[in-house]
Amino acid sequence: MATLSPTSLPNWNRMRISVNTITQNRAKSLRRLLASLRNTYYVDDEVVPISFNMDSRVDAATLNAVNSSDAEPVLM
Q: How far apart are CA 42 and CA 48, in angstroms?
């Protein structure tokens, strides 16, 4: 904490979490991950943004798992 700037000091204990998932043709693993993220307790019950990175050759099952979640997919 000694190295925090004066502007950062009031927010030293505010955690910001985001999840960036790289996925490709692993729908079962992705559904398991999304279920774990959904059932996790987050400090202050904040919403954790989730983004997905996929190749344009993603299979239909993985794309369906992404589209059934609340997050926005990012096709690369």
A: 8
**Within 10 A of 45 (CB to CB), how many other CB atoms are there?**
6
Contact between 62 and 54 under an 8 Å Cβ cutoff? The reply is: yes
The predicted pLDDT at position 48 comes to 79
- Using pLDDT thresholds of 50, 70 and 90, give the confidence band for residue 59: very high
pLDDT, tens only, 9-46: 777 777 777 888 888 898 999 999 988 888 887 776 67
Which pair of tokens denotes residue 34? Answer: 């999304």
* 17-34 CB burial, b ≥16 within 10 A, e <16: eeeebebeeebeebbebb
- The CA–CA distances, whole Å, from 26 to 8, 51, 59 equal 40, 16, 8
